[in-house]
Specification:
This protein has 346 residues and is of the alpha+beta class. It contains ten helices and eleven strands. The strands form two sheets. The chain has an eight-stranded antiparallel beta sheet with strand order 2-1-11-10-9-8-7-6, with helices on both faces. Strands 3-5-4 form a three-stranded antiparallel beta sheet. The N terminus is likely disordered.
């Protein structure tokens, strides 16, 4: 395999100018339809949600409303934090469809054999691509209170494989950024290409999608599951792929439709809020509708509501947690009000 040269992590404050060749085409300005007065009032009231920075509402593929709060803009890059896990899931689904990876049942240990511990736990051999996608690897979490210690290591992949088991593979959900980074390492090795190049090639057919910057680990592997920057408009374009069954605005099948369905199928549940979790997507009822959503620290949210043909993006201050302080609950409530408005306007 061609070795990826080590590189210092990309500073997320360096935005589009740092990667001028990421995508050849500039992001298009969305064409917005006139929103209803109720939708406008709800968006006005949303400014009272202090950490909220941007809001975009789209239905049937048309942008109905865009807002920036406290000086933020929908066309400015922001760190989407763990919402990038959902982008990572899309790349895995495309890799399987293209034969770069075998299936969700493929064991990950043989791909990463050079990074395994000297005396590996036998259960490492049972961890599959699917287990990592659904947070059922069984490995102790590298998120939360363990995150800082993990990213302080010289080799994040080796460190993620060396943590003790908290459950057997296929057991309960253990949310862990290390699991998604193992996917990044496995795909990088299997494809023999950097993930940023794969994202450019595989997701670039979707008009408006672009990654502005993306941190890497000490070995130069792009960070699977965190520290990815894109504009809220780009995040909307990504969500539109899933709303549209994996097809781009131009009708190209970018993500296999079967992968969209598989990703949205809950396979386990969060022990913290009871929400279902599939392959990088959470699932819950909001405003009386089944909703699939990506969630990043601080309140970086991508919602898709299939029954209403709706996609919504909300981004927030990424320096403050969203779960413990109730901010994520406030964002769910905002979505419920937006859905009520959309139904009322018919």
């Amino acid at each position: 395999m061609r070795r990826i040269l080590p590189a210092a992590p990309v500073v997320l404050a360096v935005v589009l100018a740092t990667f001028p060749a990421l995508f050849a085409a500039a992001q298009p300005q969305p064409t917005a339809s006139a929103p209803s007065s109720a939708l406008v009032r709800t968006a006005d009231a949303a400014e009272s949600i202090a950490p909220l920075q941007t809001l975009i509402v789209a239905q049937h593929g048309e942008v109905l409303l865009e807002r920036g709060y406290r000086g933020r803009r929908p066309d400015a890059p922001t760190n989407i934090k763990s919402a990038s896990k959902t982008v990572m899931s899309a790349l895995i689904g495309i890799a399987i469809e293209r034969g770069v990876l075998e299936s969700v049942d493929q064991p990950v240990a043989p791909i990463l054999r050079e990074r395994l511990p000297a005396d590996p736990d036998p259960r490492l051999a049972r961890i599959s691509i699917g287990h990592l996608l659904s947070m059922q690897a069984g490995l102790q979490s590298t998120s939360g209170r363990n995150y800082g210690r993990w990213v302080a290591q010289r080799d994040w992949v080796r460190a993620a494989l060396a943590v003790p088991f908290a459950d057997d593979p296929g057991g309960g959900m253990i949310y862990s950024t290390g699991s998604t980074h193992l996917l990044a390492a496995a795909l990088t090795r299997a494809a023999d290409r950097p993930l940023l190049a794969l994202a450019r090639d595989w997701l670039g057919e979707q008009e408006g999608f672009a990654i502005s910057s993306w941190d890497r680990d000490p070995q130069g592997i792009y960070f699977g599951g965190n520290q990815m920057a894109m504009t809220p408009r780009s995040l909307l374009a990504f969500g539109e792929l899933y709303r549209n069954g994996g097809r781009s605005r131009g009708g190209v099948q970018v993500i296999p439709e079967a992968w969209v369905d598989a990703s949205w199928q809950p396979r386990t549940r969060s022990v913290f809020n009871g929400d279902g979790y599939g392959y990088g997507w959470f699932a819950r009822r909001i405003g009386g509708h089944d909703v699939r959503y990506a969630w990043g620290f601080g309140g970086q949210m991508l919602y898709v509501v299939p029954a209403l043909d709706v996609t919504v993006v909300m981004t927030s201050d990424d320096s403050m947690p969203s779960a413990q302080g109730g901010h994520r609950t406030a964002l769910h409530g905002l979505l419920a009000r937006l859905l009520d408005d959309l139904q009322a306007q018919g």
